[in-house]
Design a protein that fits this description.
The radius of gyration is 23 Å and the shape is globular. Helix 10 runs antiparallel to helix 13. It has 323 residues and is mainly alpha-helical. The longest helix is centred in the N-terminal third of the chain and has 24 residues. It has 14 helices and no strands.
């Protein structure tokens, strides 16, 4: 059963824009971009540039080492494990690709939930590769496969309050071994990570953001789409509905003989998604939503940088050293 995520305003604006980069030149946009983020100079320090060959090679080398650690650990546990190496090659650029922030995109894909512009083409063009680990697991008895998964991921316990790498099998072991090389996971910067979480929570509670959300919500209500308190609640309503469809299908068809993605209900949801996304897009433009949201975020970041300058500089140095 597929379960799709729910997103929040702070997560969408902060994580999407700070960590992956964006500009606001689309719906409700202006001139702000990732380069204007006060935190960008610290978080981007370990990268040569978006999709660069150097960054790609570095990520592939880390992934290879992690998978080799898992394989070695599994061998010690008496099991075979073939390293699964993901490709970090950036997607080929397409001059005809529609900007996800544009109204043209919303007219065709809505939010890209029911109809995803990338996944369907990739699935059609790339044949499914044989997974050697799955073939090995299929060759095991039921008790052996249970032991295999426990060795790989750790035993499943319902009453565990917090994650401990020691209880997470070979995956946890490999992640722990690698964490010393990754400033994002190093214990030295645990305090900074906690403060960043607090920063994002503060953004969620920002009176300025709340006022902007009300402005956008009022626009939506006047356009015939009431009931959305935050801008991201519009897209989340589509995620919630598609989850409901898949969950209902799993209950009525536990063996998965039918495909909910081809159902009339899913088709109707796709049409509803486009309808809602277009109104959302227009209200973001009318309220200059993204420009104002990033301005609020960046002002908050600037105060954060002033208060945590020394830790951020140490973090930046650690990232640069790991390049």
């Amino acid at each position: 059963m597929r379960r799709l995520p729910t997103i929040t305003a702070a997560a969408a604006v902060t994580l999407a824009c700070i960590l992956t980069g964006c500009s606001t030149g689309g719906a409700g946009g202006g001139e702000l971009s990732i380069e204007d983020s006060p935190l960008n100079q610290y978080f981007a320090a370990g990268y040569s540039g978006e999709g660069s060959a150097e960054d790609q090679k570095r990520m592939e080398e880390r992934e290879k080492k992690r998978e080799e650690l898992i394989a070695s650990c599994m061998a010690d546990e008496g099991f075979e494990y073939t390293p699964e190496l993901a490709s970090f090659e950036p997607a080929a650029s397409d001059e005809d690709e529609i900007d996800p922030m544009s109204r043209e995109y919303a007219e065709v894909y809505g939010y890209g939930v029911v109809t995803n512009p990338w996944s369907s083409d990739a699935e059609a063009e790339e044949p499914e590769e044989v997974n050697k680990n799955q073939l090995y697991i299929d060759s095991l008895s039921e008790s052996e496969s249970t032991a295999y998964y426990e060795a790989l991921y750790g035993a499943v316990e319902d009453d565990v309050d917090e994650y401990r790498w020691e209880d997470a099998g070979c995956q946890g072991y490999a992640q722990h071994e690698m964490s010393g090389e990754d400033p994002w996971e190093a214990e030295q910067f645990a305090g900074l990570r906690d403060k960043l979480q607090g920063l994002y929570a503060e953004l969620e509670r920002s009176p300025e953001l709340a006022a902007l959300e009300r402005e956008w919500s009022n626009c939506m209500q006047e356009a015939g789409e009431p009931g959305f308190d935050t801008q991201m609640s519009a897209a989340n309503s589509i995620y919630d509905e598609i989850n409901r469809i898949y969950e209902a299908s799993a209950e009525t068809d536990p063996e998965g003989l039918s495909d909910p993605s081809d159902s009339p209900e899913m088709k109707a949801l796709g049409e509803r998604e486009i309808e809602l996304a277009l109104v959302d897009h227009d209200c973001r433009e009318e309220t200059s939503y993204m420009e104002k949201a990033l301005k609020i975020q960046f002002d908050l970041e600037a105060r954060f940088v002033d208060a945590n300058k020394a830790e951020l500089e140490a973090f930046k140095a650690a990232l640069e050293q790991g390049r």
